[in-house]
Each structure stands twice: as structure tokens, then as C-alpha cells.
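Loading example: each entry is read as two labelled lines plus one structure line.
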Amino acid sequence: VVLLWGLAGLCITLRGVLPLAKDRDGVSPHVNRFDGLRKLLPPGEPVGYLGDGEKNIQTVMAFIQTQYALAPVLVAQGTDHPRVVGNFLAKPPTPEEFTALRLTVEKDFGHGVILYRSDSP
Amino acid sequence: MAGTLWIPLLAPVLFFYALISVFLKESPFNRVWIVLPVSAGLGIGCSSWLYGVILLLAGPPGFGYFYFEIPVILCISAILILLPRHGNTFSPKGQDAPAVRVPVCEKMLCGAFLLLAALAAVIFFLISLKGPHGGWDAWAVWNLKARFLFRDGEAWTHAFSPLIDWSHPDYPLLLPGAVARLWTWAGAELFRAPVTIAFLFTFSTVALLTSSAGLLKGRTQGLLGGILLLGTLDFIGQGASQYADIPLAFFMLGALVCTFLVCRDVPMAFRWMLLSGALAGCAAWTKNEGTLFAAALILGWMVAGGLRHRWKQATKEALCLLAGALPFLLLLAWFKFRFAPAGDLFARQEAGAMLHKLLDIDRHMLIIKTFLWGSLKMGGPLVLGIGLILLREKAPAKTRAASIAGWVTLGCMLAGYYAVYLITPYDLGWHLSTTADRLLMHLWPPALFLSVLRLRSNNYSR
């Protein structure tokens, strides 16, 4: 019984792994988008963060993965820092929204990764 | 140095293998399959401790650190290996084991165990291949910290910034330190560093459980314990996810195994207790829950001593345990007081709110329900429970103290987890759903070890 139980437990774990094996890793593609940006940011200076609008598990995960990608640069939600990282998986904000947030694009790295400079005093 | 991770990985393991073998050379329980997994855990734990000392003193060490570390530990290992010894050698060949014929069914069980272990290793590598960054907590907490330590010497203290309070900046650094140490050696963030560490902890837990239960009770019980652990839903999954929970479970199991050897090997009792303390110290340097474990183990040992009216002896042994854990506890205290921000449990709420939560019956019911469902979901506890009902026998008098201490320790841990959930500042449902499975997994390998020792012996057990 114990043997069968052990085998069943491992088979269930294996079944959970195999369909996802095709997708490989969900983290690497997200994190690799930040390689260019990371080289540009000085490690001692925290940056703000702007992501896709609504707060859900995907946007929280995207924020945390951004911090993981950019460490040791600290990433803080909001636009209260001189530089702000934009991470848009859906669509980037319109130029009107930039103006409202007093942000200007410093560099667009593609794949939804944009570095902004904050014009706030 | 990329590709040669085995040097910084195996050097500390070899060092502890040699050290423990010499330290316990007179002990009949100084067996290769117990010493080897313990050395693997202690090797990773203590090298991370040394890395932590240098880190907190002077910031993240560069490659130059290894010009000191590796030659010193290899030299000491060589001296220990070459020391003239009397009595047992490195891997004593079971001097108290009678020469009995191993029955066919036991051979088959052993074969099945090895097959399951091989299958588990394949599954482990598939999971690691699929997600080399590990599971959510691995990249959001443990590997994130390792990146802070490895990537930039100047900004490493950002790892403890309140700005990233979701990453538990107050958690200790055994795992991030061990990963950052290997990355420093390799000069690159190799995925295989955290994967190998996770592999060593996961399979050392299985090896230690199987060998120690086999030695203390009988091969059949040891193999059954190993099979139950391998087949536990999510054990391999959590191990391969690179979380700190399986390393913590390993250190807890190791510390409890050593307390049993304290009872069985009276002449070497203080030495086994020192080793138990070192493993409990590693647990404290792994996760905050490890500090609770170290305290609970000391309490459990004192309770067991008190029940047998042997306060004086138990106090001496508990002091020995504390001495073993002391280097880790001192480093932990330094880290907590000097670098880490306040923990999130108490910092975010007032006493009145906590009291209200303590009296909320719905919270109690939800926690109990989650604990019960979580245990059932793991599968193993159910099978083991049935086995214990059918095949239970009284705990042997020799190891009753360790058995009492073990169950008191695990009881205190469970009570501690219960209390934390009760007063958590987070939404209770969310907190339970995201953490309870992992917390129960801390307790499962030690509980499995304590339980299989109560299964009826066969004729071939010792």
C-alpha cells in the first residue's frame, strides 16, 4: 500500500509538471526584457514603477518580477522618484497620460519596457 | 570558474564529513548514510554562515574570499582524514549489526525505494528545467536576496529595505548566502547553483530519514519512511521550487535524529547534542520559523528531562545543544538588530486588534480546517495514521526521552504556526492558502521520522 501510495504521489506530481514543460519558464521571458535597462540604472538609486492599470495577480507578479530583474536597484510602486520604470504587458499609457503624470520618455527598450524621467519637483 | 561549482559545494561537505567522522569516531552510530546527508546540510549551512559573517562585517566578498576559504577547509579536511585513529574508521561497517540474511521482501522494498528515488530525481529535474528561477517565493524572496548580495557590493543592504517589505526583508540569509557564495565562485548567476542546493537538501532529507529510521528501528521502517516521504504530494515540488522550507525541514529532521542518538549512544551524548544544536542553529539561520524550532527543541528536551526526573542531566544536554547553535544564533541576532527591519507580524497592528482576532471563533475554525485539509492533501499522514493504528508499538524506553522531546517540539511548532495565523495582519484566507502547505511541510519529515519509529519491528530490525 505504501509503495503504491508513493508511486501515485510521484505520478500526480509528474502529471502536474509535464503539460507545463512545454511552456518552459514563465519568469525568464519577463525578466530578460529588463537586461538593457538594468545596465543603465545606478544600483544605489531607487526607481518608481508604473505598470498596467488594474491590480490583479498578473500585475502584482509583473511588479515583483521587475524588482527581481532589476536588483539591486530598488523598485517602488508609483511615480515619486526621479526615474520611473514602465512595464506594460497590455498597452503603454497614451502620451496624454504621460503629461498628466508629468513623465517624459527617457528610453524605450521595447517589449513594453520604458524608462521615464519624472518632471515632478 | 563556471562549470566547477562542485568545488565550493563539495569542499565544505567533505570538511564536515571528515570532522563528524573524527568527532564521533567512537560512536557505533557514526554511519556513512547518516553522516553524509548531515555533512551535506551542515556543509551548505556553515559555508553560508561564514559567508554571512564576512558579509555583515565587510559587505559581499569577491572571488578573493575563496583563496582563503577553500584551501583552509581542504587542508583541515586532509589533516582530519590523515589523523591516526583508533576504533571506527570513516565508514564503520556496522559493528553492532548481526550478520543476518536480508529477506527477499526487504530487498524488493529497497529496490522499489531506489526506483522511486530515481523517478523523484527525474521529476525534480523536469521541474527545475521548466522553472530554473524556482517557484514564486524563490524569485520573490530567496533568489532575489541572492541577487542583491551578488550583483553589487555597494547596494547589498537594499535587500533589507522596507520598500520591498513583500520580500520579507527580515528573513535570515542561509539560502541566499549559499546561492550568492556559489555565484561569486562562478562569477555568474548560474541557474544550477540554486537548483543543486535545492537538490542536495531535498534528497538529503530523504536519505537521512531512511537511514536514521533504518538504523534506529529497522530497515523496513526506514524504507517505508523514505517511500512515504518521496510520495508525499508536493514534497519534490516544493524542493524543486527552491524554497527555504525543505532546507528548514532537513535541519529540523537532522536535529531530532541527533537527539535520538543522544539517547542511544550515551558515551557520546554531548557530542550528538552539540551536532543537534548546530543543525538547530542552521534552521534558525534559514527561516524565522527555525528560531521557533530551536527554542521548542530546548523546551522539548527539558520537558522530557523533567518527566523522567532528570533535570540536571537534561539541563547540561540542553546547554550543549545551545552551544552548538550559538554561532548561528549570534549571527542571527547581529543580522536582526543591525540590518533587518521589524517583522511584518507585529509591526503592522495594535494589541487591541490582535486581541479581537484571538477571540474570533471563525478564525480558529478556518485555521483548523486548513491544517486538517492540508495534512490530508499531503497523503502520507493518512497512510501513516492507518499504519500506526494497525502496527503501533510502545516507544522503546531507551529513546523515550527523545520521542517525547520530538513530539513536544513539533507540538510547539504547530501551536506557534497556529498563533501566527490567528494574529496575522493579512487576510487570513489568503495567508493560509499561500503558506499553510509549506509550513506543514516543515513538520512532515520530522513527524514521519518520529512515527515510523513507532511501527512494529520485524525480526531483522535492530
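Chain A has a mean pLDDT of 83.
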